[in-house]
Design goal:
Elements (H helix, E strand, L loop, with lengths): L1 H15 L4 H17 L4 H25 L15 E9 L4 E3 L15 E13 L2 E4 L3 E7 L11 E9 L12 H7 L2 E7 L6 E5 L6 H19 L2 H12 L6 H10 L10 H16 L5 H18 L4 H19 L5 H15 L7 H15 L12 H9 L2 H35 L1 E2 L3 H25 L5 H23 L6 E2 L5 H16 L1 H5 L1 H19 L9 E4 L5 E7 L5 E8 L4 H13 L4 E2 L1 E3 L5 H4 L2 H7 L1 E2 L1 E4 L9 H11 L4 E4 L5 E4 L2 E7 L15 E6 L2 E5 L5 H8 L8 E3 L10 H8 L3 E4 L11 H5 L5 E3 H4 L2 E6 L2 E6 L2
Parallel strand pairs: 5-7, 13-15, 14-16, 15-17, 17-18, 22-23, 23-24, 24-25
Antiparallel strand pairs: 1-3, 1-6, 2-3, 3-4, 3-5, 6-7, 6-8, 9-10, 11-12, 11-26, 12-13, 19-20, 20-21, 21-22, 26-27
Helix pairs in contact: 1-3, 1-11, 2-3, 5-6, 6-16, 8-9, 8-15, 9-10, 10-11, 12-14, 14-15, 15-16, 17-19, 20-22
């Protein structure tokens, strides 16, 4: 255990302090020299050993995650994409991704695609071939023509680009996520069949190729034997393939706090090991031989399901137990636990920063050390045994069942209390309903796993029908239970960010409380202290102590718009909630930013007009935040589009006040005041862009003009008004140049313009248009979120990037 802690400390230091690689090597050398010098003095040798191991952890992290080879493929990638022709070997089985039918207006939403990893060996350019190294994630629009498998050599023509990092505070760092998995760059292949060519079959000589074949046959078995919904659930539960569930399927398990039952983990290995133990004991195999065979089968199963840290943790602990049986030596749980951590961290040191890995190890630690007095096989006192012998069998059975159920709920509550802060910090959901449906769902999924394994083994034979039917019924019961949980009042609640310093103190305290003998002697005091700390974390997540200040933030949402107004009096307003990416904009950018600011209530949302890229995220916003009021233009609710219908349907499910704004209306958002400059009560009779809501927003020292997609006759009507003094202008229609634009910029004369946009590959931001009028332009695509802070008679501009 001390070695595992030292190795982890080295990884953490290299991750955040980023020391030089040579310095970490010197630490390893110094530790080894110290071990040699103090070899006869354990008190001195052990700290030196820990120092060497910590240095080794830093070296491992730096070599795998930080260091980049000079001929790495990422050097050819560009942020906007670079046309490329590459050759390499498939490193994973290509996975068909279903289209997103939730919002058909979203860009490429209805396009099926295929995704896989390619270990690149050559780049072909006009100057010749170049040998390279690195792994790229390839996304092919449509399905490639050949039946490709891991290990096959392919040639790909597409666009090579770097993954973008977060553009807003609180946003998920996808670029770091890919780096942690050893992925150098992204390749998009729009050509489908024409964009990827099979050069040579090679999967038969690849371990991952055979694993891909086994996995595909398992997926096909479930598709053939079960209805589509249960087949998708079985694929996720048994084989770790969740693409068939879709975002909606995963979302309901996430919101009810039981998503862990679908993650391939130790529970799956326990069920499979028990299943195999029953089979292997039939031919009267010895315990030692059975344990070794089971360990090898479990390792194979773990690799088939993706080899994720939660399942690999269980595999290595099973291997430790199997080796103990072979050598006839007792297995210490703490040593097996630390060994599994060391192997997972050594294979990929970045995994210890992933929520799934942390939750897996944390749950096992809590179950082992946190509930030491719970023993299923504990012998009852003599008086209890005597009383039990006098009871009827049905009464004794009912009491035993009741005790078992009560124990499961107590264990579930303790585990939920321990892991909820970490899960909350990642998913921002607290799900009390998990305490109710968790234990029965674990029972149903355990039985479904047992039945699912039987179906895989018997498919195509006479015995497969009972396994298929039982699997279908059990999975239907799982889904029905989750759907029931979603409908209960208070089933889940979305909360704001939990500060990292709070999480660190909580988990250090939990670790010490679980392992230190002194903590066991003062349990009451430790429990009171822990509940107090949990209460503080709850208050922080509720946003009770959030920072209050006057500020305006233009979020980077791609081609779309969202402006957040915050007041030091606590009020919050949003101007537009949309993007070309559809409702995902709320999940990926808007909600994470608001939660990072401790915001859970929105006083008013202004929707400038009915275009998809300005309102698509509103329904998801209502799901996650308490929205008090919505303001829209006279024409917006009359538009007969799918996006407007979804907004109206979302409003029908929520208690949100709605009002219509038109020219001349005024109001306030805390210390901010606003006036509506456009549109009038009727018209103009063109498209929705020309009827965009134009707000003049003022604060001491700062005046904003928010324009939406204003263009054509609408822009002409605004030009007829007296020109206000404008400090910051939201560039109309994402900076597009129209015949009215030069006149409008001359009329507005802002000190700064901000454009909410995504710069397409091969295109440039419209800086020249604004520079001709002497107006500096910031784009959210280049600057990320842009925040304005009033400062007396001046204002401060902050760019997130």
């Amino acid at each position: 255990m001390p070695l595992a802690l030292a190795f982890s400390a080295g990884i953490v230091v290299d991750r955040f302090a980023q020391p030089e690689f040579v310095g970490s090597l010197l630490v390893v050398g110094a530790g080894l020299v110290g071990c040699f010098l103090f070899r006869t003095q354990p008190a001195g040798a052990l700290p030196m050993l820990w120092l060497a191991v910590a240095g080794l952890g830093a070296v491992n992290h730096h070599g795998q995650i930080v260091r980049v080879a000079e001929n790495d493929i990422r050097h050819y990638a560009l942020p906007g994409g670079n046309p490329i022709r590459i050759q390499g070997r498939l490193a994973s089985q290509p996975l068909a991704l279903p289209p997103n039918d939730d919002q058909p207006e979203a860009r490429l939403a209805n396009e099926p695609s295929t995704r896989g990893l390619v270990n690149v060996s050559r780049v072909l350019t006009h100057a010749g071939e170049h040998n390279v190294v690195g792994v790229v994630q390839v996304t092919v629009l449509g399905k490639p023509g050949d039946d490709l498998r891991a290990g096959d050599e392919v040639e790909i023509v597409g666009r090579l680009q770097t993954a973008s990092g977060p553009l807003n505070p609180g946003e998920f760092d996808y670029a770091q996520f890919l780096r942690d998995r050893g992925i150098s760059a992204l390749v998009f292949v729009p050509g489908g069949v024409n964009g990827i060519t099979l050069l040579r079959r090679g999967w038969t000589g690849s371990l991952w190729g055979w694993i891909g074949v086994v996995r595909e046959r398992g997926l096909e078995t479930f598709r053939e034997a079960l209805p589509p919904q249960q087949a998708a659930l079985a694929q996720a539960l048994v084989l770790g393939e969740g693409s068939g569930l879709g975002s909606a399927g995963w979302e309901k398990f996430l919101r009810t706090g039981v998503i862990h039952v679908l993650a391939i983990s130790g529970q799956h290995l326990v069920i499979l090991a028990w299943f195999l133990w029953l089979l292997l004991r039939l031919p009267s195999w010895s315990r030692r031989r059975s344990a070794l065979v089971i360990a090898l089968i479990l390792l194979t199963y773990a690799l088939v399901t993706g080899g994720r840290p939660p399942v690999m943790r269980a595999v290595w602990m099973v291997f430790a137990l199997a080796v103990g049986l072979l050598l006839r030596r007792p297995v210490n749980f703490a040593n097996a636990f630390a060994l599994a951590w060391l192997i997972v961290a050594g294979w990929n040191p970045a995994e210890i920063f992933q929520t799934g890995c942390q939750l897996s190890f944390l749950a096992v630690a809590v179950l082992h050390w946190g509930v030491p007095d719970v023993r299923f096989g504990r012998e009852a006192p003599p008086i209890e045994r005597l009383l039990a012998a006098q009871r009827p069998l049905i009464v004794s059975g009912a009491l035993a069942l009741g005790r078992f159920v009560l124990l499961q709920y107590l264990l579930g509550f303790w585990l939920w209390l321990a892991v909820s802060p970490l899960a909350l910090s990642r998913y921002h959901i607290l799900a009390p309903i998990a305490l109710v449906i968790g234990p029965p769902l674990v029972l149903l999924t355990s039985l479904a796993l047992f039945s699912g394994f039987g179906l895989l083994l018997t498919h195509g034979r006479v015995l497969s029908a009972p396994f298929a039917e039982s699997t279908r019924l059990l999975l239907a019961g799982c889904e029905g239970l989750v759907d029931w949980g979603l409908q209960q009042p208070g089933a889940y609640v979305f909360l704001a960010d939990v500060p990292n310093w709070w999480l660190v103190i909580f988990h250090v305290g939990l670790l010490l409380g679980l392992t230190l003998p002194l903590a066991r002697r003062v349990r009451i005091g430790i429990s009171v202290l822990g509940l107090g700390w949990l209460s503080l974390g709850t208050f922080l997540a509720l946003g009770w102590f959030r920072p209050l200040e006057d500020r305006c933030t233009f979020l980077a949402v791609g081609h779309g718009g969202c402006v957040v107004l915050e007041s030091s009096t606590g009020e919050v307003a949003l101007y537009d909630v949309g993007s070309k990416q559809g409702n995902a904009v709320t999940k990926r950018q808007i909600a994470p930013f608001l939660w990072s600011r401790g915001i859970r209530r929105i006083d008013e949302v202004f929707l400038s007009h009915a275009d998809f890229d300005h309102i698509a995220g509103f329904p998801e916003l209502l799901e996650r935040f308490d929205v008090k009021r919505l303001a829209w233009t006279p024409s917006l609710p009359k538009q007969e589009t799918a996006a407007v219908r979804r907004v109206l349907e979302a409003l029908a499910r929520r208690d949100v006040a709605v009002r219509t704004l038109q020219r001349g209306d005024v109001g306030t958002v805390g210390n901010w005041s606003y006036e509506v400059l456009h549109p009038p009560a009727d018209g103009p009779p063109e498209n929705e862009n020309s009827r965009s809501m134009v707000l003049s927003v003022k604060h001491t020292g700062l005046t904003l003009l928010l324009t939406g997609d204003l263009e054509k006759q609408g822009l002409s009507q605004v030009l007829e008004l007296p020109a206000p003094t404008i400090d910051v202008l939201q560039a109309p229609h994402h900076g597009s140049e129209t015949p009215y634009t030069p006149r409008f910029l001359t009329w507005a004369k802002p000190r700064l313009a901000i454009s909410s946009q995504a710069i397409a590959a091969g295109k440039q931001a419209p800086h020249a248009l604004f520079e001709r009028h002497g107006i500096p332009l910031l784009t959210t695509a280049e600057s990320g979120a842009v925040t304005l802070r009033p400062a007396g008679e001046r204002f401060v501009v902050e760019r997130w990037k």
